[in-house]
Records
---
Amino acid sequence: MELVSDISLIRGEEELFDRTAHLFVAATDIACAADDLYTWALSRPSLTRQGERLLSGKRVRKLYRPGVLLNEQTAQHLHHLSGLGAQIRIGTEEINETILLDERVAIMAGDEGKEVRSYSVISRPELVQGILSLFETAWLAAATLETFDARFADIRRETPQILEFLTTGCKDDKAAKSLGMGVRTYQRRVSELLVALGVTSRLQVDARARELGLL
């Protein structure tokens, strides 16, 4: 871990949680923003028990992008965490992947494109407050898990077929006919799926869907 005043640079998830585990245990207020469940290891369904221990007696808020609801397993995981008391919201805007602990420490994820992802642990008060302000703005603009998921059910049900059509280059009129809907309705569903995946074009769908375990 490289120390730069009150900002620490950590490389890799293993070192991150080795160095910060005590902060999570001690924190009573945890706020987390991420594109999906794989930015922060403790959010993963495979580590549910460990994550559940961190929820006990704490205020926990989790903000995600819609892509987390496209996978049935991760959607169920979020509903499970919600049932345990975590507040979960879904936002469609870009977010800084961040964890805030007791409004005193911020952990920010670096570029995921690198072989080993880096994380910045920040305790400088003015920086933490600025990051907290961004989180609060995104939190207020997002919808609750239950509200968002209620209108997301159709998209999740149709996602496997639409992904197959998009990745195989199937024409819109043929894909729409296969799904029993009009072309405009199909194109609207595709647009909604692109937003959920967090991509801006159909060319990006294959790679992003594989990152989320949808293909």
Note: The chain has a mean pLDDT of 83.
---
Amino acid sequence: MRSELFAASNQEQESAQAGLRLQNSKLLKVELRGEVFARQGAMVAYQGNVQFEAQGAGGIGKFLKSKLTGEGIPLMKMRGQGDVFLADRAADIYLIDLEGPHDGLSINGANVLAFEPTLSWDIKMVQGAGMMSNAGLFNCNFSGQGRIAITCAGTPVVLSVDQPTFADPQSAVCWSTSLQTGYQRAETLGLGTLLGRTTGEGFTMSFAGQGFVVVQPSEQPPGGFIGGAGQGQQAGQDGVGGMLGGLLGGR
């Protein structure tokens, strides 16, 4: 049998080292020799002796935060010996290695594909968000030492924050937790109206300090209890903002 389908670039990529690696730009290969966490429903194929166990939002504490904030990751634990292939709607996949206690990544839960169990993570209120915006109030913060696979809707740009930096909160995929973040109404930056017409940019995120921001060429729609359209401001009026701020902290 002969076909371009069988080109070497489409063959399974082999490696003697266990862990997360790219099969290609849209497919993650997990060479499983123990445990790895992944987004529920992301498995597209596997070989070997592998068990899949639903983890919900990653524990009762994270489950409660997930329900309150609309942020979180529906997880499954993959355990055993074998190869597992993961994908998310043909999105581009990138690997990030966190290398110790001083490395931290704040990431939109919708962009998390898989990560090694050596990493610690939690749901945190984005620093400076308050209750102003209807998108991006809560993120998943990762720290420690290990590898994480993230997805982007298209080829992203990585901005080095060496000057005042701003991004649409629905396009910001992740950023260094060392950065100081804030939310500003777009009209304060001159983006709210143009010749009497709205630009569609209600809020803008600001970043300052030393670090990076990853921005994808697409906007994730807002959602969730706090993320739903209009609910963030109402929640703040009802005093939920203060309660969640105390529960989740800010970063």
Note: Residues 62-70, 131-136, 193-200, 222-248 have pLDDT under 50 and may be disordered.
---
Amino acid sequence: MSDVEYRQSAFTPPAGATDILLVRHGESAPAVPDRPFDLVDGQGDPELAPAGRVHAERVGRRLADERLDALYVTNLRRTTETAAPLAARLGLVPQEEKDLREVHLGEFEGGLFRQKVAQNDPVIQRMHSEGRWDVIPGAEPAEALRGRVAGAIGRLAAAHPDERIAVFTHGGVIGEIMSIASGSHPMAFLGASNGSISQVVVTAGRWIVRRFNDTAHLDGGLDEEPAALS
């Protein structure tokens, strides 16, 4: 009998790969009818709600001891505010990657999307059944969303070979990245919780899913609720 043993090996990123932690921003301020959110480049830009600031602090504590080579945010302030506690702990200045901003929701921008979701509006039902955002009048076409998200991830990977970065971004974008990486239905990964952490390892020819919607730091356990966009 041979004494040789072959243990299961731990995952090791391929040479030159970029390990990307995708952090969904903390809960943002509630939408109020007749008081639309301020817009940035036509997109709603709410600040974090008090609960979202708690999410940000817990993300900061969760990732404070991880080796992170860079932090990225979008041009929407809920990501910058969520990244702030971790940036302060690590002494890193977040860089902006505008093309990882949230899906443009057309006529449902400014907070109206949340109201339509709560009402189970027929347009929202059709959006989910067809897997396309642009059933909403004026919303971003699926092909445009995929193109800008894939381009942004490609740029970050090219800039950070053999490094780990944290990207503070949005639920629709995380869903799109996971869909690209896994080959899933376009909206199969919607609903990441506010403050959750997902992870992909990106090489020139392959995106590897390592985790989705990790909420261990949020004290919600397996009961942590998913959240709508914006």
Note: DSSP finds six helices and eight strands in the chain.
